[in-house]
Every structure is written in C-alpha cells, then in structure tokens.
Amino acid sequence: MDHKVKIWDVFNTRKCVQTYMGHAAAVRDIQFTNDGKRFLTCSYDRYLKLWDTETGQCISAFTNRKLPYCCTFNPDDDKQHVFLAGCSNKHIVQYDTHTGKVEQLYDQHLAAVNTITFVENNARFASTADDKKMLIWEYGIPVPIKHIADPTLHSMPAVTKTPNDQWLLCQNLDNQITTYSAAGRFKHNRKKTFKGHIVAGYACKPDMSPDGNYVMSGDSDGRLWFWDWKSGKVFRKLKCHDQVCIQAIWHPVEPSRVATCSWDGTIKYWD
User: Fold this and answer.
1) Per-residue pLDDT averaged across 211-221, rounded?
2) How far apart are the C-alpha atoms of 181 and 250, rounded to whole Å?
3) Taking a C-beta distance cutoff of 8 angstroms, is the pair 237, 198 a contact?
4) Mean pLDDT value across residues 199-224
5) Would you state the pLDDT for residue 11?
6) pLDDT tens across 114-173, in order?
7) Could you give the CA distance from residue 151 to residue 154 in angstroms, rounded to a whole number?
8) Cα separation of 237 and 197, whole Å?
C-alpha cells in the first residue's frame, strides 16, 4: 500500500534486501520470470512495470489507462517476453515486452478480471472475473473455448493451480474453496470442497502443500486454515494476524514452513 516493492532474505538475515520505488499508488500483483532476473508489478496508478531484480531499475512501463488487477508471464521459457494483464475494463491484454505493444485482446468477460492461470502445458489459460464466470481460452486466440457459468456460482477472486498441475483451487466468496480439473473438460469436482473459513469480500489466495496432501487459506479474521486434501476435513487452524490474512504460501523446498501476509502490514514466517 506504500507504493513500494520489497524483497526479503528468508534464509539468513531475514532483512529487507532491496526496495523498488516507481509506482504512484498501491501495488496489487507481482510476477517473477522463471529465472527470477526480472519481475512485473501492476499497480493502482494504472501502470504495469517491468523491473530488473538485481539492479532495481525499472526496465519498461505499460499502460492501457485502465486498472490492471492481475498479471502473469507466459510460463514457457521461450515466451517469457509475453505477459497477460487482467483489467478493470473486462479485458485481458497481452503485451510483448520487446516491442512494448499490445499483441492480443481477450474481451469476453462482463466485469473486472481477477485471475489468469495457465493450464495444459501453457497452451491454454483460465480466467475468472467479477461476472462470476470462469472462461477457458486457447493462448493467442481471443475466443473462449469453454464458459463455466452457473446461477449458483459466486465470484472467484483468487485461483491457485495445484503443484501436480491437475487441479485449480478457487476461493469462492460464499466461504468455500471449490476445485476444478485443470485440463480436459475443466469439470467441477464436488467431492473436493473446503469449508469452514469466512472470506466474504476478500480475495484470500489458497495454496497447496508441495506434496499435495494439504490445502490452506487465510480468512477475514486473520486465521490460517488447513484442510486434508483426501478427506476435505479441517486439519488445523492457527491465529496468525489481527486483520485479514490475505495470502499464505508454502515454502517450495522446506515443506514444514509457511509464510503469511496480512492487511495489518506484517509478513510472518511459520514453522
């Protein structure tokens, strides 16, 4: 919220290593390239900026004069110069960082776009928006190949792909995490629904343990919830923060460690 981006050392000193300044409003989303040498930020100042991780320099800036809500690079190593941004004007915009130009426009949503997730070996991507739909697109083709819409669906402001790339975990604003297959027919798996937490109104991002056994999510009371993936039952809950616990991520190498962040301005590292 203070317009800055900071990188912290988790392993040794636990100090702030680098601060990146250049946005004129709060930063909403950050995405690193596969090698970690560059990253992309999108901000409420309506700009997307590409940064050099090591030097802290802003390499380039992109804007379509709309609010970017999410950004993601194409995960293919040979397409790391291409990124997608979901915007407040219902559009998903595809930029090329080499030319700085818009390559493609995906415009089938009826409200602001919240998430973009690449699936099926990055040949397709799924997007969710405030119109309570999930759309599946072929990468590069601006016509969706599948609409997932249902009168009972709620908005899904946060989506995470499981480590085995088989499932999409979707945080629903009716206080449950639903699961869709991340390939083929993108079917809703009704047996894998995780409930108990209260998230109404907040985009708390779910995550899954690297071994695929546990699902976790923050909630609006600052608690962190863990569910057993096989049974769907609540495994554990921890009181982590005084305000909304907006995101929690598992350490990719040390599976017993989790980092949480909150609207109270803190990042906590748990063992």
Assistant:
1) 93
2) 21
3) no
4) 92
5) 83
6) 999 999 999 999 999 999 999 999 999 999 999 998 888 899 999 999 999 999 999 999
7) 8
8) 9
Q: What is the overall mean pLDDT for the chain?
A: 92
Percent share of the chain, pLDDT over 90: 87
For residue 253 the two structure tokens come to: 């190498």
pLDDT for 1 beyond 80: no
Amino acid at 57: Q
The type of residue at 164 is N
Distances in Å between the alpha carbon of 147 and those of 108, 124, 168, 170? 10, 13, 15, 15
Going by C-alpha positions, the residue among 239, 252, 247 that lies closest to residue 267 is 247
pLDDT > 70 in the chain, percent: 100
**Tokens representing residue 59 in the block:** 């390499």
Three-state secondary structure along the chain?
CCCEEEEECCCCCCCEEEEEECCCCCEEEEEECCCCCEEEEEECCCCEEEEECCCCCEEEEECCCCCEEEEEECCCHHHCCEEEEEECCCCEEEEECCCCCEEEEECCCCCCEEEEEEECCCCEEEEEECCCCEEEEECCCCCEEEEECCCCCCCCCEEEECCCCCEEEEEECCCEEEEEECCCCCCECCCCCEECCCCCCCCCECEECCCCCEEEEECCCCEEEEEECCCCCEEEEEECCCCCEEEEEECCCCCCCEEEEECCCCEEEEC
CA distance 245 to 113: 22
Is residue 217 within 8 Å of 194, Cβ to Cβ?
Answer: yes
Q: Which two tokens stand for residue 227?
A: 């569910």
Q: For the whole model, what pTM was predicted?
A: 0.90
